[in-house]
Amino acid sequence: ASAISAFYMSMNNTLIQMSVSDEMRGRVMAVYLMTWGLMPFGTLPMGALADAFGAPWAVAAGGMASTALILLIAVRVPSVRRLHVDG
């Protein structure tokens, strides 16, 4: 399983770096790596929710919280609404 995980990570990193322009590569990789670095902060509350209410409810709550955060950022930060992908 670890070989598959290593293959996935290297392929994912390669595809991201090949898809992003040279000017934006550092920023995109910083955000991408930040998601892995911040993941442990979400595991404790998600584990507590799963322990208290069950895994399906914890996953649903996490999905709703993520959606709410994305919508809040989209409404409160106008520059995010102007982002687009060429191609």
Secondary structure: elements and pairs:
Blueprint: H1 2-19, H2 25-53, H3 55-76, H4 78-81
Helix pairs in contact: 2-3
Rounded radius of gyration (Å): 17 Å
- Provide a count of the helices: 4
Strand content: under 5%
Give the ordered list of helices and strands. Answer: HHHH
Strand-pairing-aware structural class: mainly alpha
Q: Which stretches are low in confidence, meaning pLDDT under 50 for 5 or more residues running?
A: none
Largest sheet: none
Structural description of this entry:
There is one protein chain. With 87 residues, the protein is mostly helical. The protein is 84% helix and 0% strand. It is built from 4 helices and no strands. Helix 2 packs across helix 3. The longest helix has 29 residues, at 25-53. It is flat and about 45 Å long. The termini are far apart. The model has no long low-confidence stretch (mean pLDDT 87).
